[in-house]
Design goal:
mainly alpha, 12 helices, 74% helix, globular
């Protein structure tokens, strides 16, 4: 008596199952990663803590500042000074969210469950982007309010209702969200966390420094179009002639992110994992 052998038939999941399954899977992976909690705590701590520290430093030496420094003082910018370091924490987390999948081999399981591949990237970006946007926006508002409380000791504070201030504070949250998703795109393209983090630091911190070594007429035309400069314009209550307007800066960041995620999507489709 012989057993009858049957060939298993693959039945693709329905669109609804695939949608809910991928979304639930990415949310579960995001909140279960230990690096997620620590990186988000670090980003919030740097944003609020350094804004508080810088504001306290200004208040402590306000009476010794010259007239020019007092006239050019920007209470909004000083309160958002922690963005400089917070962008590293949130950007590195973006890299690790996908880089960890590649290094551990988990990406193979994810792509086997979702053969079309791209939903894995898109829903990972959506889940992480929403978390980053909400948390970084709340942290930016908290950093602003805490800093203004300190600055009120010398009567040099401002309010969210002042011209351009609310837009600048919300712009800080948007820029940090952009950095988070840019890190995700780099991690997908390079498939190596160390290489992606190095590239992220290079784009955000090293390239702006190298601009100082260019001839001034070159620097003035190039520097304003860098992602970091666009972020500065987005977080400025009042932009200067050397900066992009907030609207153009936001448009440029959207273009940069679209190109980055588009390249990541193409490479994810074409390469083996």
């Amino acid at each position: 008596m012989t057993a009858t052998q049957t060939t298993p038939v693959y039945v693709p999941p329905s669109g609804n199952v695939a949608f809910t399954g991928v979304l639930a899977s990415e949310w579960t992976k995001l909140r279960s990663l230990r690096s997620t909690v620590w990186s988000l705590v670090a980003a919030v701590g740097m944003l609020v803590g350094f804004g508080l520290l810088f504001s306290w430093g200004v208040v402590s030496r306000w009476d010794r500042l010259g007239a020019r420094e007092r006239l050019t003082f920007d209470p909004t910018r000083i309160s958002l000074g922690g963005v400089f370091l917070a962008q590293l924490a949130i950007g590195v987390l973006g890299v690790l969210i996908i880089g960890g999948d590649f290094s551990s081999g988990m990406i193979r399981s994810s792509l086997a469950a979702v053969p079309k591949r791209l939903p894995v990237l898109w829903w990972k970006a959506v889940v992480f982007g929403v978390v980053a946007l909400v948390l970084m926006t709340v942290a930016s508002i908290a950093a602003f309010e805490v800093a203004q409380t300190v600055l009120s000791g010398k009567g040099i504070q401002t309010t969210l209702g002042a011209d351009g201030v609310l837009r600048a504070v919300l712009g800080a949250g948007l820029f940090l969200t952009w950095v988070a998703l840019f890190g995700l795109a780099l991690g997908t393209m390079l498939r190596n966390s160390a290489a992606a983090i190095s590239t992220l630091v290079g784009v955000l911190l090293v390239v702006p420094i190298l601009m100082n070594f260019l001839p001034s007429d070159w620097r003035d035309h190039i520097d304003r179009w860098l992602p970091s400069s666009a972020g500065d314009s987005l977080m400025a209550a009042h932009t200067t002639d050397a900066q992009l307007s907030p609207g153009i800066a936001a448009t440029m960041l959207v273009v940069y992110l679209a190109i980055s995620l588009g390249a990541a999507a193409v490479l994810l489709l074409k390469r083996d994992v």
